[in-house]
UniProtKB/TrEMBL annotation:
This is Acyl-CoA dehydrogenase. Signal peptide: none annotated. GO terms for molecular function: oxidoreductase activity, acting on the CH-CH group of donors. It comes from the Bacteria. It comes from Acinetobacter wanghuae. SUPFAM superfamilies: Acyl-CoA dehydrogenase C-terminal domain-like (SSF47203), Acyl-CoA dehydrogenase NM domain-like (SSF56645).
Length: 333
């Protein structure tokens, strides 16, 4: 079975699979992992296909998409830094880059100690790529094997309602062996950081696309002038955002060594606006019924507002403005 068929079957059978949603996510995740090598790395000529796959996974379940996107991002980092392992495509990887834990990670003689927050799929992951800040605040990438001794998981601090099924934990490391990846500050300065950030936005868009589909189906089943109006407004937003994904993918593939930070920040801001509009309009058009009577709609509608908060709102818009001042003719048709 190829990846397209797996995704089609997951989407079709999702509600009828396991009654335990976390078990369902786990099983689907490990059905997808063996197909990791069929998914193009970003900036290698077929970035759009990568985003289309992430979008399809997100339309099934956003917790599944978040974990799978992190896995694919880790593989891309390993490939970019020359640390690719053949076994990596058959195990679950993650990127854990949240900062601000106490006590922070410290590194001594090739071993890490301290706390790392917001480690999604912590009890499912085999290997993780983590960020660590040294005494000079340089960000260094570390690779850790989760089967090592000296790692404790704490799930009590994850109180999320949306995105509650990501198995997110706080991890305590006590003299755990690690391997350094790349040079200091590589994680944020490499072009792949921004290319990966666009992949996250593809997940947001995929969930919005699935919610929009519910309105489309409801309008076919029971037409109404107001449904047509809401569907038309939503379609206008979705078309514009879809076109921006195509354009940005072409830019990245044409100039893979560049970050395209301005375009990708603008893409993410546009996707956020579209997602919020889809959430608003589907609710107005369909009322409370799908939130109460359809498990997948309700889960997507609860998860999506949390997931899009990986956008940094005003901070991103400020940076977009700064970058726009450095460009000339960016709005000329």
């Amino acid at each position: 079975m190829d990846l397209d068929l797996v995704l089609e079957q997951l989407s079709r059978d999702w509600d009828a699979r396991a009654s335990d949603l976390e078990q369902n996510i786990h099983d689907a995740l490990f059905e997808l992992i063996p197909y990791s090598d069929e998914i193009p790395y970003p900036a290698q000529g077929n970035t759009l296909k990568r985003w289309q796959i992430l979008s399809r996974v997100a339309g099934i379940n956003l917790s599944l998409a978040k974990i799978f996107e992190s896995h694919l991002d880790a593989l891309a980092i390993l490939n970019e830094t020359g640390h690719a392992f053949e076994t990596a495509k058959h195990e679950l990887w993650a990127v854990w880059a949240a900062e601000g834990a106490s006590p922070p990670l410290t590194l001594q003689d090739g071993h890490v100690s301290g706390v790392k927050n917001w480690c999604s799929a912590a009890d499912w992951v085999n290997h993780a790529v983590m960020t660590y800040r040294d005494a000079k605040q340089n960000s260094q990438l570390l690779m850790v094997h989760l089967a090592e001794s000296g790692i404790q998981q704490q799930f009590n601090d994850w109180h999320a309602v949306g995105m509650q099924h990501t198995h997110t934990a706080q991890l305590q490391f006590d003299h755990v062996p690690i391997e350094l990846i790349g040079e200091p500050n590589l994680y944020l300065t490499r072009a792949g950081f921004w290319h990966g950030a666009a992949g996250v936005a593809a997940c947001w868009f995929g969930a919005a696309q699935r919610l929009a589909q519910y309105l489309h189906e409801a309008t076919v089943h029971k037409p109404h002038a107001y449904k047509y109006m809401y569907l038309g407004e939503m379609t206008s937003h979705m078309f514009a955002t879809q076109a921006l994904f195509y354009q940005t993918a072409q830019l990245i593939d044409a100039e893979p060594e560049k970050t395209h930070e301005l375009q990708i920040r603008a893409l993410r801001a546009n996707v956020e606006n579209t997602v919020l509009k889809v959430l608003e309009l589907t609710g107005k058009a369909l009322g409370a019924a799908p939130y109460c009577n359809h498990a997948n709609f309700a889960q997507l509608a609860a998860d999506l507002p949390v997931f899009i908060r990986q956008s940094h709102a005003a901070f991103d818009l400020e940076r977009i403005g700064e970058l726009a001042l450095q460009e000339h003719g960016i709005w000329i048709l």
